[in-house]
Amino acid sequence: MRQLKKLSRFLFSAGGGSASGGDWTILLPAVTLSLLGILTMSTFGVGTSLAPRQLLWLAIAFSLYLVLSTFDMSFMRRTPVVMALYLVALVLLGMLILFAHPVMGARAWFSFGLISFQPADFAKLALIALLAKYLSRRYVEIGDFRHIFISGAYALALMLLILIEPDMGNAIIFGTLWLGMMLVSGISKKHLAILGLIGLLVASALWFEGLKPYQRTRIISFVNPAGDIHGSGYNAYQAKIAVGSGELFGKGIGYGTQSKLRYLPEYQTDFIFAAFAEEWGFAGVVLLFSLYALLFARLAQIARAAATNFDAFFTLGVLILFAAHVAIHTSISLGLLPVTGTTIPFMSSGGSHLVLEFAALGIVTSLARHGHGLSRDTSANEYLGG
Q1: What gap in Å lies between CA 143 and CA 146, rounded to an integer?
Q2: Spatial contact of 59 and 7, defined as CB atoms under 8 Å apart
Q3: pLDDT tens for residues 331-346?
Q4: Which domain, by its residues, includes 134?
Q5: Which side of the chain, N or C, has fewer Cβ within a 10 Å radius?
Q6: Is there a domain that residue 198 lies in?
């Protein structure tokens, strides 16, 4: 608790009262969610805890937000910059497959001693920037299926590299991110139906050829969760027990038996929502969803007031990314989706995703701040002067 108080004083003194300190309507929900996550993963002196390391990552991520939000990030609108980010993401994901050592069966991280970096996190930001650039120039032509195909090819290239790792959870996030940005761009119902059919065919092909045996087993255990609660269905079963046992007001901070006694695996990352719900109960879950709702509402407001089409699509892309993570992570803990291993924004343990999330918010804040004076060009769908 002493560490949390010190970090809180640092965070709020770093940006409070300064015109260049960031957008506190974005920062307050994000920092609060991060601190709630740190409280949930803390063992309070009993056993090994990831909370101290996450405190350090939060300080780094917060500092990066302040830097990016103050700096003029309008160069992100340039095509060479966007393509460079995308190509770097492709190279990093390709290098994972060739050089990374498997961790829990997946080549998803580069490890440098005590620090691990997951390139998929960077690739999400790169894809958002690329789709924002593509749609900012062609959203009035989105009725042409060619643009849906081309934008989908960009996303698919990243998804295939992630599936090879294999990392089904992040592959689903990438697909959801692309589909969400297509929906906000105004895709027609006919094209949406075609995409649904293609998705069904791809899912069928993956079931028979692309999925690993353990991934098929997870899906089967989702359909019949009571079939193997001591094997493939164990994680999902324990998560539902943790959520349900929280009842109205929870068991109390640090008193979650499912998590602290390690019945619930990966409670600091993949199942931190279940651990939080056990300790905070239904009232805590309402608080949690309220914080996410405040953050999402603010991002939507920024997107509506954006000075350029790129800014609007980029901000919506960040919103869709966070919302996809929240929806999938919580649905897994509630038994509504098969276990795929996904984080929840700002709360799950891990440095690379936390840094990405605050970096994305910093870019959104910078674009909104330095976009004043620009206007949307309805003919070229670019900001004036571009």
Answers
A1: 9
A2: yes
A3: 988 888 887 878 999 9
A4: 24-370
A5: N
A6: yes
Query: Taking the model in full, what pTM does it have?
Result: 0.85
Alpha helices by DSSP H, 111-228: 119-138, 145-164, 168-184, 189-205, 213-223
Specify the DSSP class assigned to residue 306: -
| 3-state SS class at 103 | strand
Beta carbons within 10 angstroms of residue 206's beta carbon: 15
- 376, part of any domain: no
* pLDDT at residue 238, as a whole number: 85
Q: How many Å apart are CA 36 and CA 39, to the nearest integer? A: 5
Q: Could you tell me which residues are beta bridge partners of residue 111? A: 116
Predicted pLDDT at 263: 79
Spatial neighbors of 156 by CB under 8 A, at least 6 apart, are none
Alpha helices, DSSP H, located in the chain: 2-15, 24-41, 51-70, 79-99, 119-138, 145-164, 168-184, 189-205, 213-223, 234-245, 257-260, 272-304, 309-333, 351-370
- The DSSP H or E segment spanning 116 is strand 115-117
Buried/exposed code over 292-325 (b: 16+ C-beta within 10 A; e: otherwise): bebbbebbeebbeebbbbbbbbbbbbbbbbbbbb
Q: Which residues contact residue 169 at a Cβ distance below 8 angstroms, ignoring those fewer than 6 apart?
A: 328, 340, 341, 342
Report how far residue 110's alpha carbon sits from residue 121's, in angstroms, rounded to the nearest whole number.
12
375 domain residue, yes or no: no
Phi, psi for residue 264 in degrees, rounded to 5: -95, 110
Question: Can you give the pLDDT at residue 372?
Answer: 62
Structural domains counted in the chain = 1
| Ranges of the chain with pLDDT below 50 | 10-19, 377-386
The verdict on residue 384 lying in a domain is no
